[in-house]
Amino acid sequence: MTLYASGSGTGCGYSPAYSPPSGAWENGDSRKMATESVSLAAAAAAEISEEAKAELELVNRAREGDMGAFSALIRQYEGKIFRLAMNITQNREDAEDVLQESFLKAFEHLDQFQGNSKFYTWIVRIAVNQALMKLRKRKSDRTVSIDEQIDTGEDTVVREIAAWDPDPEVRYSQAELNTILTEAIDGLAPIYKTVFTLRDVDGLSTEETADVLELSVPAVKSRLLRARLQLRDKLTRFFKRKGDDAFAYM
Amino acid sequence: MLTCKEFLAELSDFLDEKTDQEIKTKLESHISECPNCFVICDTARKTISVYKGMKSCTIPEDIHTRLMAAVERKIAAKAAKKV
Questions:
Q1: Range of the domain at A237
Q2: In Å, how far is A125's CA from the nearest CA of chain B?
Q3: Is A196 on the interface with B (CB under 8 A)?
Q4: Which residues in chain A are closer than 8 Å to B79, comparing Cβ atoms?
Q5: Residues of A in Cβ contact (< 8 Å) with B71
Q6: What pLDDT digit, counting tens, does each position of A191-204 carry?
């Protein structure tokens, strides 16, 4: 699906593409009161976890201008947002811009955050759109699509089939393991990397991932499968059981 | 029995335990007889597991410092508007 065409959009202005669901962008003075009451009602009705309640409390305090509360939200999510921005832009400076723009826009529009979704799901949508706008500006002479480089065929690549040790990660130190995992992910095409990170590392649901990236659920599933299989393939080089073949598992 | 291609098409849902019972039975039957697909399934499951356990990323301190400075400027500007 093409998200942005060259020359479209209004630069840093809010795009309908990152309007949160459930009519969060209504205009008018009644918006803030309505949103706050929805937040409290949503929190009560959904029986949200203690963690989610604490997060909502941070958001409410940040809305009132509490820098400490907003700093806590930043500390919690800046790493994930920066990683996501790096995944999409593939450029450190652009990723830093995306990080700043995302948190500034989030702060500016905090009164429109509704407590019926995770704060991360809300801000990640802002970040995805900021990152895609960066790409669009960088490649202003052509259409930028979040799923470019995608082969539309249904085949999946499985190059090596070898059993792994039961706990192959214990062969490596934490630092070595992080390097292996990071380099494997970095070797994926941006859309596989982004889908896998949101879905399997950050823990968004398939539906949330589809919503954030404005892809269909089947498109997310297809890319997730490819990402998982490609990563499995890359990790096999490090994790396979020495001297065994597939039948060693049977 | 499912073909390997059919098995792979359902693999993600199988790993996420999102398949209905009928499909699940067919998939389990396939991997009980196909060692290659058994290994692919097992190692794909392990792949997801090691990434779930991956240490959450931290950003370089200089990037964090510039972010906080930008946010503080924003908050100050907002406060100045109110006055």
A1: 168-249
A2: 19
A3: yes
A4: 65
A5: 67, 70-71, 74, 103-104, 107
A6: 899 999 999 998 89
Domain boundaries, chain B: 4-82
Integer angstrom CA distances of residue A68 from A114, A119, B57, B61: 20, 16, 21, 18
- Tell me: do A175 and A244 sit in the same domain: yes
Question: Could you tell me if A233 and A36 are in contact, meaning their C-beta atoms sit under 8 angstroms apart?
Answer: no
Q: Does A181 touch chain B (CB under 8 A)?
A: yes
End-to-end CA distance of chain B: 73
Task: Single out the residue in A89, A123, A138 at which a domain terminates.
Answer: A138
Q: What are A96's strand-pairing partners?
A: none
Last residue of some domain: A117, A138, A159?
A: A138
Are A108 and B74 within 8 A, CB to CB? Answer: yes
CATH 1.25.40 assigned to B4-82: no
Q: Chain A closest CA to B45's CA: distance in Å?
A: 9
pTM: 0.75
Looking at residue A127, which CATH number applies to its domain? 1.10.1740.10
Q: What is the pLDDT of residues A127-140, one digit of tens each?
A: 999 999 998 887 65
Asked if residue A155 is part of any domain, the answer here is no
User: By C-alpha distance, which of A55, A88, A87, A85 is closest to A73?
Assistant: A55
Residue A80 domain-assigned (yes or no): yes
